[in-house]
Design goal:
The protein is of the alpha/beta class. The chain folds into two domains: 119 residues, Dna Topoisomerase Vi A Subunit, Chain: A, domain 2, CATH 3.40.1360; 59 residues, no CATH class. The chain has a four-stranded parallel sheet, with helices on both faces. Helix 3 links the parallel strand 5 and strand 6. The longest helix is centred in the N-terminal third of the chain and has 14 residues. The protein is globular.
């Protein structure tokens, strides 16, 4: 599909974990793509400073794997770069391994490099980045009060409810309430979300 598909122009820089992720995205996006080098970013002050400068100029899109290592890297970047300069793209939990690897990783999840084109474009669209035009717009997040009222935070079973909601919308299961507050308004409405949660409670 990549051979016949026009590359999507995106003004933000896409930040990924490693070189294979960059190779995977290059045929899809006409954008600056920078790799972290995995956990080496923790000791690479020059690379982090570069990412900060890029974020200040045009913003960054963080796209990491949906395993715990990917979330640690995402949180590290999010703490180092102003929130206003970041857009988060999340891939769903998909079991398996990448073709180049002999065996699956510890959490048996396929990373960015192994995702299909359809899944990747869907992930960008869920983040408010239109795969057709590359245009990205910010959407107001759901309020903390609303998330509490519908049981996605602050309740005894909120963690399990979040997990089910993530599964329903094909999002990684490790998303926090704050992350859901940002991503859910892009892919659903308050009314639809309430309806989904009511059905969960019925079951």
């Amino acid at each position: 599909m990549e051979n016949s598909q026009k590359r999507i122009k995106i003004k933000e820089t896409i930040v990924v974990e490693g070189k294979y992720d960059k190779i995977r995205l290059a045929p899809l996006f006409d954008a600056n793509i920078i790799e972290l080098g995995g956990f080496r970013i923790y000791n690479n002050k020059d690379r982090l400073a570069l990412i900060r400068r890029i974020a200040e100029k045009n913003g960054i899109i963080i796209l990491t794997d949906s395993d715990s290592a990917g979330f640690r890297l995402r949180h590290y970047l999010s703490s180092a770069v102003p929130k206003a300069n970041i857009k988060n793209v999340f891939i769903p939990n998909v079991s398996g391994k990448e073709k180049r690897k002999a065996k699956p990783g510890k959490e048996n999840l396929i990373g960015v490099e192994g995702m299909t084109t359809e899944v990747l474009l869907s992930a960008f669209k869920k983040a408010g980045i239109d795969p057709e035009s590359g245009i990205s717009e910010r959407t107001e997040p759901f309020s903390k009060t609303f998330l509490y009222e519908i049981g996605l935070s602050g309740k005894a079973n909120s963690s399990e409810t979040r997990r089910i909601i993530c599964e329903h919308f094909s999002l990684p299961k490790m998303l926090s309430a704050n992350s859901l507050a940002e991503i859910l308004p892009i892919i659903t409405t308050e009314a639809e979300l309430v309806s989904v949660i009511e059905k969960i409670k019925e079951n």
